[in-house]
Design goal:
Number of domains: 2
Shape: globular
Number of strands: 0
Strand content: under 5%
Number of helices: 8
Length: 145
């Protein structure tokens, strides 16, 4: 996959493996989501105004603003220096979002566990693509900031 595909997967909440599985057989994954991700990056960079992003995506400005925020978060994962840092950032974001929604009941906790498992699957995908093993990143994963 190319960077834009990883970015689209992050923005639109697809696992990397699932996203890759749709490439070459589904125009939404090959064309639509990458096009929208490029537009959202332009919005994040201030090259396209919020109003234009919303108009081009045919959504209201509140939804466009949420997608721009998702794009900012997605960049921190996709542009991380290595798979371990991408994983750490993704897990951090999953926990932050769960805390914002509240972890008051078992269902919310179960949902967070699922999100962390998705992040682990994405880490496995990145490692496979890079021809690396988990132990290659052991120190980075255990790092205490």
């Amino acid at each position: 996959m190319k960077r834009i595909h990883y970015l689209a997967a992050e923005i639109f909440s697809y696992s990397y493996d699932n996203y890759e599985g749709h490439l070459g057989i589904n125009a939404r994954f090959d064309e639509v989501m990458p096009r929208d991700a490029r537009l959202l990056e332009l919005g994040v960079d201030g090259k396209v105004e919020l109003k234009e992003v919303a108009a081009r995506l045919e959504i209201d400005e509140d939804v466009a603003l949420d997608l721009l925020r998702r794009t900012q978060r997605a960049r921190r994962v996709v542009d991380a220096e290595n798979p371990a840092e991408a994983f750490r950032e993704g897990v951090r974001q999953s926990i932050e979002l769960a805390l914002e929604k509240g972890l008051e009941d078992p269902a919310a906790l179960d949902s967070l566990v699922v999100q962390i498992c998705y992040r682990a699957a994405d880490l496995g995908f990145l490692l496979k693509e890079a021809g690396q093993a988990l132990h290659d990143h052991s120190e980075q994963l255990r790092r205490e900031d």
